[in-house]
Design brief:
With 259 residues, this protein is an alpha/beta fold. The protein has a single domain (6-254), classed as 3-Layer(aba) Sandwich (Rossmann fold), CATH 3.40.50.1820. 39% of the residues lie in helices and 17% in strands. The protein is built from 9 helices and 8 strands. The chain has an 8-stranded mixed beta sheet with strand order 1-2-4-3-5-6-7-8, sandwiched between helices. It is globular.
């Protein structure tokens, strides 16, 4: 993905296209590349924005879901975005949920895929062994239904993170913060149209999590995708984009024409 990474103050981000902002938040081991197909598809009709979340740049006291949400809020203010379609994968979904609960006024719709906030397996029952490449490779493959989606480039990125002691400490801090920050009792406050796109083979936030989000967020719409794990926008981009496009198109129609 050869898009220009822009910088304004401390914020680094991609911004492609014109129209209502479609703001994408990546997960704990995520990167801008996670959204390559999504950016390419939607930049024709939307201003697609992907901020680089400061997973490893916040001080340890603010290395939390709340700390990331504050960063997103400041980024939105700095860029002056309005009428935002806010999409989050995994931890990014959790950050999106905290944001919409605190600052609903600029958010037009919410899209969650493999989001934490209710339940997650994280890295499973054990934490990455530093320096063990095969272990990291297997753990990265578990993110997907098709293990070949975990390219060598992706595994190398995760390996580099888990081989850095400071980054590992911050990953653990973020993972613990996500587990502590359960939003079950607040989700009924969300008023915006909400779309849930979930892999039927997600082992990190399994399908029952999607059903629970669907029950708790009023009027939310749930779509399951077969043969797909924790990151549908990477593993089945065509199907993901089609579901998202249909949802966004419905929002363009006058209320009287909507079912």
């Amino acid at each position: 993905m050869n898009y220009e990474i822009k910088q304004q103050d401390k914020f680094k981000f991609i911004e492609e296209g014109e129209g209502e902002p479609l703001l994408l938040l990546h997960g704990l081991f995520g990167a801008l590349s996670n959204f390559a197909d999504l950016v390419e598809h939607f930049r024709k009709e939307y201003k697609v924005v992907v901020p680089l979340l400061p997973l490893f740049d916040l001080d340890i006291f603010h290395t939390s879901v709340g700390g990331l949400e504050k960063f997103v809020q400041k980024f939105i203010e700095a860029r002056g975005y309005q009428q935002i379609h806010l999409l989050g994968n995994s931890l990014g979904g959790h950050v999106a949920l905290v944001h919409i609960l605190k600052h609903p006024e600029k958010i037009r719709s919410l899209i969650l895929t493999g989001s934490s906030g209710l339940f997650e397996n994280g890295m499973g029952d054990s934490y990455p062994k530093r320096g063990d490449y095969e272990y990291i490779k297997k753990k990265t493959q578990l993110t997907f239904f098709d293990p070949t989606t975990a390219t060598k480039e992706l595994v190398d990125e995760v390996f580099e993170i888990t081989n850095n002691r400071i980054k590992v400490i911050k990953i653990i801090a973020l993972a613990k913060s996500a587990i502590r920050n359960n939003l079950g009792e607040e989700l009924n406050q969300i008023k915006q149209p909400t779309l849930l796109i979930w892999g039927n083979n997600d082992t990190i936030t399994p399908p029952f999590v999607a059903k629970e989000f669907n029950n708790l967020i009023p009027g939310s719409e749930l779509h399951f995708v077969d043969n797909c794990g924790h990151a549908p926008m990477m593993e089945v981009p065509g199907e993901f984009n089609k579901i998202l496009e249909n949802f966004l198109n419905k929002l363009k129609q006058p209320a009287a024409n909507q079912d």
